[in-house]
């Protein structure tokens, strides 16, 4: 499903017609993005397939927007469950500010901490493997101080 939406209300060209856009944003909604990889569970893409019919139900008044919002949050939370067998060893003394899994291969985990350190983990190749878990150590670390 392809749709075009305006990037910002000021992007509308008011000299011609209100529908003419300077820079339309092209959006493709085929899968769920995060879990579109078949190796990431059976939930890949289910959110978007169910979202549009649910949105139509809200427009018809069959479901409240609050119920739809709650259902989307619950489904999204379930799809983000971590694999309990994977253990990420971090050297961050402070808190972790940011986690992101690369959107292309769904293989590399990027972390950033409060102490300006950034670490990259390869989530498909464990550094050591126990009977019940896989340990992952950073492939690369930048501590923000040039070392």
- Mass-distribution shape: elongated
Sheet with the most strands, sense and barrel status: 4 strands, antiparallel
Poorly predicted ranges: 1-44
Chain-averaged pLDDT: 67
What's the domain count?
Answer: 2
Question: Helices and strands, in N-to-C order?
Answer: EEHHEEEEEEE
- How far apart the termini lie comes to 47 Å
> What's the count of strands?
9
Overall radius of gyration = 21 Å
Separate helix tally: 2
Helicity, in percent?
10-25%
Largest beta sheet: strand ordering: 4-5-6-9
Structure description:
InterPro entries: Rad28/ERCC8/Ckn1/ATCSA-1, WD40/YVTN_repeat-like_dom_sf. The protein has 147 residues and is an alpha+beta fold. It folds into two domains: 2-79, no CATH class; 86-142, no CATH class. It is built from two helices and nine strands. The chain has helices at 46-60, 65-79; strands at residues 2-6, 24-28, 86-88, 96-101, 108-113, 118-122, 128-129, 134-136, 138-142. The strands form three sheets. The chain has a four-stranded antiparallel β-sheet with strand order 4-5-6-9, with no helix packed on it. A three-stranded mixed β-sheet has the order 3-8-7, with no helix packed on it. The N and C termini lie far apart (47 Å).
């Amino acid at each position: 499903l392809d749709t075009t939406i305006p990037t910002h209300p000021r992007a509308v060209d008011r000299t011609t017609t209100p529908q003419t856009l300077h820079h339309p944003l092209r959006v493709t909604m085929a899968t769920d993005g995060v879990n579109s990889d078949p190796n990431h569970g059976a939930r890949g893409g289910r959110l978007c397939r169910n979202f549009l019919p649910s949105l139509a139900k809200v427009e018809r008044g069959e479901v409240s927007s609050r119920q739809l919002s709650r259902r989307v949050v619950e489904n999204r939370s379930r799809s983000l469950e971590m694999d309990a067998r994977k253990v990420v060893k971090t050297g961050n003394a402070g808190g972790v500010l940011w986690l992101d899994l690369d959107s292309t291969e769904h293989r590399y985990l990027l972390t950033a901490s409060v102490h300006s350190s950034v670490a990259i983990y390869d989530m498909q190749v464990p550094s050591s493997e126990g009977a019940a878990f896989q340990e992952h150590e950073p492939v690369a670390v930048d501590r923000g101080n040039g070392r």
